[in-house]
Every structure is written in structure tokens, then in C-alpha cells.
Design goal:
Blueprint (H helix, E strand, L loop, with lengths): L4 E7 L2 H12 L3 E7 L1 H11 L3 E4 L8 H10 L8 E5 L4 H11 L3 E4 L4 H20 L11 H12 L2
Parallel strand pairs: 1-2, 1-3, 3-4, 4-5
Length: 156
């Protein structure tokens, strides 16, 4: 693709950021790495990315907290979010896709093509939605409460 697509990768492991950068740069993506949730939110505000790759298990501010802050912020709530995490239990995927309404959910380890396909899909969907009349995407009613409750049950 001719346009350079910008992605913020929020991850607590710098080596994973570099791996994702290597995979995506070959496909025309510019990857801005952010180590941790606070740095990630700053990068999103500064860079205005086409999508965000978000790890869930991070110290200080976990991925769900980052996601909730994004969706509460007018300038960030429209940015597609793909969760990229080692949390592979089906309850985690249900929580992400159906309750929190993330745009996609990829479990580590992942294949490079899975990551590329997911990004291509969510960015294309966003561009289609931007061209159509606005129909806001929001998390399920009470979704934040359910996220907190599930985290308590799972001991996180």
C-alpha cells in the first residue's frame, strides 16, 4: 500500500515491540513503540495512530485500564484497538471481544500473517466507517463494571 500506516504498540517487553516493528515495517507500517500504559497513552495522543496494539498484562497500568482511558477520551475513542496478549483463555477473549468491544484479539505466540491480517482488517473497517454516517461503537452497557468484576473473579 502506498500510504504509511501508523501503529502504536503498547507492550511492557521492548523485545516484543521490536519483533512487531520488524514484522510490520516490511508491510509499510510505521510502528511507534511504547513501554507501558502511561507511555502508550502519551504516544497515542501525540501520534494519532491508525490503530493500537495493546498488551493486557503490564505493570502499573494494565491494558484494560489503557483501553478504558482511550474509550473515555474523545480524541482517542475512535482508534481501533487490537489486543495482543498471552492471555489465551476463552473467558479473556469473550471479555475483550464481546464485553469491552476491542476490534480484535490475538494471542501470543502469533504468526506474523495473523498480525498483518488483523491490522489490515481493522484499519479497512475504520476507513469504511469514516466514510459512512457515524454510528458510534461503544462497549456494552456496564462493560467497565463487568471488566472489573471479571478481573476480581480471575484474581487479577
Amino acid at each position: 500500500m502506498s500510504e504509511n500506516r501508523r501503529v502504536v504498540c503498547i507492550e511492557d517487553e521492548p523485545a516484543m515491540i521490536e519483533l512487531i516493528r520488524l514484522i510490520l515495517s516490511r508491510r509499510g507500517y510505521e510502528v511507534i513503540g511504547a513501554v507501558g500504559g502511561r507511555e502508550g497513552l502519551e504516544a497515542i495522543q501525540r501520534e494519532k495512530p491508525d490503530a493500537v496494539l495493546l498488551d493486557l498484562m503490564m505493570p502499573e497500568m494494565d491494558g484494560w485500564e489503557v483501553y478504558q482511558k482511550m474509550k473515555a477520551n474523545e480524541a482517542m475513542k475512535h482508534i481501533p484497538v487490537i489486543v495482543v496478549t498471552a492471555k489465551a483463555q476463552s473467558i479473556d477473549k469473550v471479555l475483550g471481544l464481546h464485553i469491552a468491544k476491542v476490534d480484535d484479539y490475538i494471542t501470543k505466540p502469533f504468526g506474523p500473517q495473523d498480525l498483518i491480517d488483523s491490522l489490515d482488517k481493522v484499519i479497512a473497517t475504520r476507513k469504511t466507517q469514516e466514510a459512512a454516517p457515524e454510528t458510534p461503537k461503544s462497549a456494552s452497557p456496564g462493560g467497565e463494571h463487568l471488566i472489573d468484576k471479571l478481573k476480581d473473579v480471575l484474581g487479577e
